[in-house]
Design brief:
Helix content of chain A: 40-55%
Cofactor (chains A, B, C, D): pyridoxal 5'-phosphate
Strand order of the largest sheet of chain A: 2-8-7-6-5-3-4
CATH class of the largest domain in chain A: Alpha Beta
GO molecular function, one term (chains A, B, C, D): transaminase activity
Number of domains of chain A: 2
Largest sheet of chain A: 7 strands, mixed
Strand content of chain A: 15-25%
Keywords (chains A, B, C, D): Aminotransferase, Pyridoxal phosphate, Transferase
Protein name (chains A, B, C, D): Aminotransferase class I/II-fold pyridoxal phosphate-dependent enzyme
Oligomer: homotetramer
Family (chains A, B, C, D): Belongs to the threonine aldolase family.
CATH architecture of the largest domain in chain A: 3-Layer(aba) Sandwich
Shape of chain A: globular
């Protein structure tokens, strides 16, 4: 069975596991107050060209979204996101569990559009009864988006400008950031650090067993952030768990080195399928490809390839997702192309 | 520097790390729907002699407490705990963040007493205005307690009987359960499974990098528990993270095998210190020892041993904690005894 | 200045005030455990032809929505509402403050459509990852809707049938129910009691100073509902405040008697404006009329009539709302028609 | 049956009802943006000698406590209260429902002691792990207390000084403030405005049908307080409901004029009972008297007097509460003294 179901099916990249092993018997202070956490944070700040940044390691994506959003919003505020944003659709109400509404703007190609955002905010303030409504308090985007698409630098700059104009923090969910940075893009890690107020670098889907590195980009980590992390049950006693993995991923550019091949293989898959006449539900430049398949072909396919069902396309077609990861091999892609 | 500051200073037991390594490149379904999760759950149910049990793996102790308690309580209920219970003191309000009050009963030697519990509940229902008060909705105990003390089987049976009489689920926090099971005790894992409604087996402090195994003991896992886990940001995409570690810990009795020496060394330390005339703040039969030290000796001690400050004892003395773990060696204890 | 800005600009209907006065010095048990509360509840149950109903008096609409919805939903569930539902738009995130998401379906003429509802639910359950999503846990509709429109009996029956098919409680917000019951409609109070699981009869906008009467229609008031009301700060010490008003409103059919003229006057206004060539943003059969006015006319109008701004219609037109109430007089409507 | 069960058994003081009646048909802007609300606020500010104060009218005591506390605390903070504080005991977990812990200090005679408060805070900050604990974020006291006792001006000044030293807002719950101000006390309304950051003047128990007037004493009303009120379902559409009542109560000193006799009668009752040999559970100088009665006398008493059961005193005695209010008459007290 070929595994293309997602990008979190394998364990950790061998170098990550190796670093866990080699540091294993080193006694460390708990709760992230240790030297490896400090080292990993420094490496990340360097990679972001963001010396004034503050880094905090959490364990998973939904957890990170809820902790960061709850920490930044005032009680009467909500987070603006595109309608397909992960926080709006697949987090089981984690944001609402903290008492905050997700305020949605229809997505365009999986992304939030700066003009739509501005219009949303202006309409809100123009409403005479907006004191009875949930205030937009911050903006959430993901890069790559849920559909694998990417913001251009210009798009990010325009969103950032709207956020600044209305004094709204911009938060970028980088659960799959590695596959975004290594695609055909003009957006770099320092660009993201410059244009957002807080973002996270995804570990779970990009080579780690778990872990997401939150970066507050300009000394803006909320007061007692650590206590708020604990309050959400998100603090790990062994801070090394996440930190050691990021320490490995940000040594010698490992993070991008292992994500780049996944993107290359996804595009090879895309081009190969296109050549065979397959259509795509969305044009994705990253490691997730959304393919329209005839329903009649699914049973046979399912016997040979593990994929994700996304949605019905029409009465006779289905959209499925094929995802590569740092663990995908050239042979697997070639074999898949033969099968499809 | 000798490390006796806590039981989570080292990484994972080598066999745990080994199992993470050997299963690393095995592709697995996400979110705990994989065969290793199933295997680990079966091993735990066998160790608990609890075939009808349901096991769910979470990542940390505070997280586990908040998720389980929030899942079991109705909105108008709180959790009864001893005043020194971890949920009441050191979880940054995680229980309250889910909207529930911690209802406290003064502790006795770190433990909740069955008679105190019964009196609390009876007083509540006798109060004419109890409809305006937070209802006791479940009972939380920890074993070992925060002070390292243990319930006897009889004590657990009596608490369990009170809970049954008032239809209150009993939840046992076993963050350090390994050190409880391997102490001089008449309480076994099957006893705990029989006497509680839900409990967790601590991994983080007992040989794992992270992970706590929640056991619902009689088919009583709340409906859509998984969704509630996700809602609290507590679900890991790579379910293997926690499951593989427990799969190792519950193979060939590793869990108890590695905890037993920690308890033996803690008692060796205790007896050695007692012989030197040291006094103890509490009589602990497990891996945490609470020692009364003259303040004047602390600076010198601090230069050689990493320990935890607990509280002032009087103007001239301080209570410190010395903790052993699966990683503590006989040599370290001997060296510490020489130093003190 | 003519007052057409809303239906809560005046105090209470004189008979309501009179009943508050005549019962004022009668000592009553607190918190709704008094005989007037019991009397008012009986009168409401009789009016609803719902002997097994359970009635609870609350103070305001948003409060009622949040208390009822929070009491009915399980933690992992949200409430399905139309996109223009009051709970989604103008309650400052009150529902989310209780930890629950509002799940929206696009509205049709201000209303939720049964087929849209069914499709929403079926799509949810068809999604392979719905365990990571907020479950639809109940359905919220308002009658009249935010736009003054009404469900037909057939529409309600179809929504009710979908709810029953999926075991979802149906909650009807009747903030303006008096104006709905007395419009040209085939829906009666007993119909509503029969077709919903819980609904409320609005007092604030229909003749009372405050107060909403929640009716659980078939012995389904949640366990310890009273405690949950208290927990939301929604219990009044003097239960008489709301109960006496409803006791008056449900004596000799006062509720409908005072709402009917408001509807008649609103339709007189509508027909008069239509005859003068005005266009309407929506076709409302109740006491709120949504009129499209040229922007250039607004300043003059604003000097003579208090109205509500609703939204821009286009570059040159605005939608305004004119509302009648039990306090509106024929003379005021005639004067308004002269002005417009 | 003589009514001494509480101070909220009757409706509103006749002058309050009269003002509701005389303003009833005056059309007013909704949600508290009307001239009577403004007038009442001005009168209260004048009575408090607090021109920079900001007044907001809410409907009930628990509601007020939860709204104010939630608005003032940061997410990682709790409210410090005495163990018998209403927020800790009889609000059904309303504070916790907003995600905040009530941090308790043992009460002294129903009151919080400044030294106990200071010690609590200092102990918190001295704890090395206080980042894992709930931070004290504000201080709650009630005046009169739950037991009818009063702070002296010196006691308030000392509490206020501790609060200022640690930058903690001081919130005074004045549900029965009228009976506190008119007792034998050196504390005036301007003193309270000067020594607290926010307090409320109770209406429900002091002559109104409902209503509590929150006063932020120095321009410190939280940003978008109104939206947070709405979010808690605590905003009334007809702002007049509460405002008109306070407008009456603060005209010509009505508030104190009607509370003073209640205190005088309570003390007459106290002195009369003391002369007959009755003992008191607490020495209360206000309208609530806590009397120790032989159990054997309760059945007969209960047939003639409505009182509140407080708690068992010992095997043969019970503590009951007798409360007077603005509605209590000299004749009722004389009759009660004859009976007892």
């Amino acid at each position: 069975m070929l595994f293309f179901v997602n990008d979190y099916g394998y364990g950790a990249h061998p170098k990550v596991l190796e670093h866990l092993t080699e540091t294993n018997m080193q006694p460390l202070t708990g709760y992230g107050n240790d030297e490896i956490t400090a080292s990993a944070a420094e490496k990340i700040k360097a990679a972001c060209a963001c010396p004034e940044g503050q880094v905090y390691f959490l364990t998973g994506g939904t957890q990170t979204n809820m902790v960061v959003i709850d920490a930044l919003l005032r009680p009467y505020e909500g987070v603006v996101a595109s309608s397909c944003g992960h926080v709006n659709t697949h987090e089981a109400g984690a944001i609402e569990s903290t008492g905050h509404k997700v305020l949605t703007v229809p997505h365009r190609n999986g992304k939030l559009d700066a003009d739509d955002l501005r219009e949303y905010i202006e309409t809100f303030y123009a409403d005479e009864s907006h004191n009875h409504m949930v205030f937009p308090g911050m903006v959430y985007i993901s890069h790559p988006s849920e559909y694998g698409t990417l913001y251009t630098k210009n798009e990010l700059e325009r969103i950032s400008a709207v956020c600044k104009a209305f004094d709204l923090p911009l938060f970028l969910d980088g659960a799959r950031l590695g596959y975004g940075l290594t695609a055909d893009t003009d957006v770099t890690l320092p660009d993201i650090a410059r244009l957002t107020d807080v973002f996270y670098i995804g570990g779970t889907k990009c080579g780690a067993l778990c872990g997401e590195a939150v970066v507050f980009t300009h000394g803006n980590m909320p007061r007692q952030f650590e206590t708020m992390v604990k309050r959400h049950g998100a603090m790990v006693a062994k801070g090394r768990l996440n930190a050691v993995q990021f320490d490995a991923l940000f040594t010698d550019g490992l993070y991008e080195k292992i994500c780049a091949p996944a993107v290359r293989l996804a595009l090879k898959l895309r081009d190969g399928l296109a050549a065979k006449g397959y259509r795509f539900a969305i044009d994705s430049p990253t490691n997730q490809q959304f393919i329209i398949v005839e329903n009649s072909r699914l049973p046979e396919l399912g016997g040979k390839v593990a994929y994700s069902f996304i949605e019905k396309y029409d009465a006779e077609h289905t959209v499925i997702r094929l995802a590569t990861s740092w663990a995908t091999t050239e042979e697997q892609v070639d074999e898949l192309l033969r099968l499809l």
